[in-house]
């Protein structure tokens, strides 16, 4: 059984008061925290395209917002979540969407 979510994360709010050299790593950890709150899963795998998007401008200036797609899979004895980057031109009006996949 698996679920698929699409949501927007405001990174600016999470890394606003962090030192310059820790902003991009904190952005990655905030994405993992948001996915953990959503799926209650400890094993979270960040896709290379999302990692590239966060680190594109360097360690000091991560993007303000990011739209992600989370694929949460539950198997017999383990569960994990894959997180992918979704390119978006405008963030206004976007809401969290959930799809059930069998």
UniProtKB/TrEMBL annotation:
Protein name per the record: Ribosomal protein L31e like protein
Source species, domain of life: Eukaryota
Swiss-Prot/TrEMBL keywords: Ribonucleoprotein, Ribosomal protein
Pfam families: Ribosomal_L31e
PANTHER family, A to Z: 60S RIBOSOMAL PROTEIN L31
Keyword Transferase annotated: no
Recorded family membership: Belongs to the eukaryotic ribosomal protein eL31 family.
InterPro entries cross-referenced by the UniProt entry: Ribosomal_eL31, Ribosomal_eL31_CS, Ribosomal_eL31_dom_sf
GO-annotated cellular components: ribosome
Keyword Nucleus: no
